[in-house]
Structures are given as C-alpha cells and as structure tokens.
Design brief:
Elements (H helix, E strand, L loop, with lengths): L30 H6 L5 H6 L11 H17 L51 E3 L13 H26 L14 H8 L8 E3 L5 H6 L4 H8 L33 H15 L5 E6 L6 H13 L3 E7 L2 E2 L2 E2 H4 L16 E5 L3 H15 L6 E6 L19 H6 L3 H11 L5 H24 L23
Parallel strand pairs: 1-7, 2-3, 3-4, 4-8, 7-8
Antiparallel strand pairs: 5-6
Helix pairs in contact: 4-5, 4-13, 4-14, 5-11, 7-14, 8-9
Length: about 475
C-alpha cells in the first residue's frame, strides 16, 4: 500500500486516523509527527512503504521510527532482530501531544543501564561538496542569474576594499573586520533560501552577508560612518548590521554569543508553526565557546529548523585551526549532537549553494538541525589593524589563486554566459555603487543626541534609566 502523505481527514474518525486499531505507544518516537501525517495506529504504520514520503518525516526521523518498529516487533515475538547497539532518540519536547510528563506512564528516562557487549561499532558518512563539481544549469540558474551572483560578489569585494580605504582616512572608527575572500559563502547561501522568510544570523564579519541579502550599500556605508541613515541608525557600526525586513538578524560582536539566539529564532519559527528556517553563521574560533555546544544541544533536543554553518576561514584571530583543535575537521563535531554533517568548498559559489540547499530542504525544513562546515579563506588580517604576520611565506598568494570571484569569472567565459566586456561592465557598476554609497554617507547627518535612548526599551518613559 502506498504511503498517504495528505493531512488527516476530519471525517475519518475522532482523531483523523486513516486506520482504526491500537494507537501508537506513548513513548513511540515522533508519534506527534506521525499523527500529523495521518498515521495514528501501528497497523497503518506497518503498511507505509516509504516513511520519508510522509509529511514532516525526514531521513533521521525515519531511521528512529524504523528502529522502534524493529524493537517492537522483537518484543512481540516477530520482526527484524535489533542489534541493540544504538539508543533510541527521545521525542522532542515540541513534538509532544500536549500531555505533561507528570501524567506519563513508565520511567522518565528510556536510556538503558544494561550495557551491551562491545566493542560498539558505528559507520559514519559525511557528504562533501568540492569545488568544480556543480554546473549552473544543474542548480537551476539561468545565465542572467549567474551574472547576478558575480555582480553581488564583486559588490562585496569593492565595498570591502573601499571600507579599508575609508578606515585609513578616519571616516570609519572602531573595529573593522573585512570579508574579502569569503564572498562565495554569503552569496551561495543567500541564494539557497527563501529571502524574507528564512532568517540569517551571523558574527561580526557581517558586511558581505548583509550585501548578499540585498541590503542597500548606502545604508551599510552610512552605518560604518556612524550616520543616522545607517541600517542600524548609526549606532551599531561595523559589527551590527541589521535588516528586519530581509530577516538579517544581525551581526554580533561577542564570539559565539549569537548561536543561542539562532537557536531561539528557529525555536520561534517552530513554535509558530511556520516552514521557515534559520541559517546561523559563525567562525571556526566560535566553536571553542560553550555557547556553541549549548545551542547545538538545545537544537537537537527540540529538533529545531536550523543549519549551523561554520565559516572556517582557517584562522581564529591569529591561530590556525590545526593548531587549536585536536579534531580540526570541524564538520565532524556536529556528530556529537546527532546532526547530519557536511563539508563544502567556500571558494566555489555553486558548491556552497548546493550544500546549503541540501541542508535547508532535506534537514532544516524537516525539523532536523544540521551542521555544515564551509572552508574558505580571508585575505586580510583578523581586523583592519592585524598585519597577519602569522601566515607562512607565499600562503596568501597560493590561496588567492583559488579566488572564488576569479573562478566564477572563468566559468562564465568558458560556458559562454558573457564576454570579458560584460564582466568589466559589471565590475564598473559595482565600483560606482560603492562610490555613491560613500558620497551619500559623507553627506548624511549624524544621529541627534535625543536618539541616544531610542530602540533601547519598548516603553516610552525609559523606566530603568535614572
């Protein structure tokens, strides 16, 4: 019998079940999801040919359900023998049927104290997305859309180059962390989500991500200049770009502190019953923070629609990844939380796009958190004042030979999507947009002193300010 993936029929029974009979056990994994898909009895569940075709049941959930069926069959004297080597994943608190834990029968924990004979063996697999594997037409990009990708990456590169110049002219104050070299990560990722519905939250190297999401270069430059027309009204600066309309949920200055916020955004989307997801970007250095583990653990417990994306640009400030991690393959760390984990090249916009698409559609939209490591490289120092003397001789030149923008330009020419003259015109347009942004920022006013307490509290009388 083919699986029925439709919503429960209100006329089919008191609980919308397609089959009457013994219901699902109270502790059966993902019972609420099965009921939402119209499966409310073990009889019907055993007839489903493909669990993954059921609405809301992704691969990870299907594996849990199949294991539970095997164990149930064994306890009833039939079915496939279970190895007993894996522990059943408990249901998400958000996936419950509304019953309180106090009213549940049986033990509060289902983890066995009976230790199986070892050694326990596990087979792990991690998907990879190397450069030069994917073609634009395979990803559904038309020729003009490929040129749009290039245009956005060039805009980020020209914007950051002029930011460095403006800092040296003392137009920009405070900290300045440039995104040069990582443009394929932001552009590939943004073009893999539903912009305006899905959320993105990131760390302090946020200019490129904001521009990739369509933020106005004039508002971005004005923010760096501390002007009232900036995207955060001139009070956020380099590390706090924000755009509520596009659901750019901010750059964040404290290393790793935004990861729990990303989990909270995903929690809110699930709580409200939307189909939206959150991409949470962070650097390799943030994985040393306890907030990384806390956010990942909560996402796993609550089965949140989030993708944790590690932008591994090889250096946490001045410390190389392989000097700071005993396990420098960072994507493998997500396995500790039972996440699907993958590794992608951040020097190829198509590879990033395919990787993020897969993690969003296969996992996040099925309420399965996941982790993606994107290996990239920043050409500048950690901040504008860092000379990056920790690099080996010739290292930067070698990395720049793999530049994502050059790679995409070569791809466009090889596949006859545009001419060199077309590419030069796109680049000139990017330069002009950045120049216009600088001119507008110079002319814009600074915030008035009366705006000092704006957007601090929702109350108009500032009750907590003396």
């Amino acid at each position: 019998m083919a699986a029925d993936t439709s919503a429960p029929d209100p006329d089919s029974g008191s609980n919308g079940s397609l089959h009457e009979g013994p219901g699902l056990p109270d502790d059966f994994p993902h019972a609420a999801r099965l009921e939402q898909a119209g499966v409310t009895s073990l009889e019907h569940l055993r007839e489903v040919e493909s669990l993954e075709e059921l609405t809301g049941i992704g691969p990870a959930y299907a594996n849990d359900i199949e294991r539970a069926l095997e164990e149930l069959g064994e306890s009833e004297g039939g079915g496939t023998t279970s190895t007993g080597e894996t522990t059943e994943k408990r249901s998400s608190p958000l996936s419950s049927n509304g019953a309180s834990e106090d009213s549940a029968e049986g033990p509060a924990t289902h983890q066995s104290i009976d230790i199986p004979e070892g050694p326990i063996k596990e087979t792990l697999s991690f998907e990879t997305y190397p450069a030069d594997r994917y073609k634009h037409d395979e990803l559904g990009f038309e020729a003009d859309e490929v040129l749009d990708l290039l245009s956005n990456m060039l805009l980020q590169r020209r914007f950051e180059n002029r930011c460095r110049q403006m800092y040296q002219r003392q137009k920009i104050s405070g900290f300045l962390h440039l995104y040069i070299g990582q443009e394929a990560v932001s552009t590939g990722s943004v073009n893999a989500i539903n912009l305006g519905d899905d959320s993105i939250i990131t760390a302090y190297r946020d200019h490129g991500m904001g521009l990739a999401m369509g933020m106005d270069p004039e508002a971005c430059m004005a923010e760096l200049f501390g002007k009232a027309t900036g995207c955060s009204k001139g009070k956020g600066g380099s590390m706090h770009f924000f755009d509520a309309e596009r659901k750019m949920m901010g750059g964040h200055a404290i290393v790793g502190a935004h990861l729990p916020l990303g989990a909270g955004i995903a929690f809110a989307e699930k709580f409200k019953g939307t189909d939206n997801v959150c991409l949470c970007f962070f650097g390799d250095g943030a994985m040393h923070q306890g907030a990384f583990r806390e956010a990942c653990n909560l996402a796993g417990i609550y089965e949140l629609p989030i993708v944790f994306v590690c932008e591994n640009n090889q250096y946490a400030m001045g410390t190389a990844v392989d000097r700071a991690f005993s396990k420098p393959d960072l994507y493998k760390h997500g396995y500790n939380f039972d996440f699907p984990c993958s590794l992608a090249s951040g020097m190829d916009v198509f590879s990033v796009n395919q990787a993020v698409r897969d993690h969003v559609e296969t996992y996040a939209r099925q309420d399965q958190p996941s982790m993606l490591e994107v290996r990239t490289y920043r050409y500048q120092g950690h901040s504008i004042t860092d000379p990056a003397e920790y690099r080996a001789e010739g290292e930067l030149d070698q990395r720049q030979s793999e530049d994502a923008i050059n790679r995409l330009q070569d791809y466009i020419l090889t596949h006859d999507l545009a001419t060199e003259a077309d590419i030069e015109e796109i680049d000139e347009e990017a330069k002009q947009r950045v120049k216009n942004a600088i001119d507008a920022a110079n002319d814009a006013p600074f915030p008035d002193e009366s705006a000092l307490y704006d957007d601090v509290y929702t109350q108009e009388d500032y009750p907590f300010i003396a």
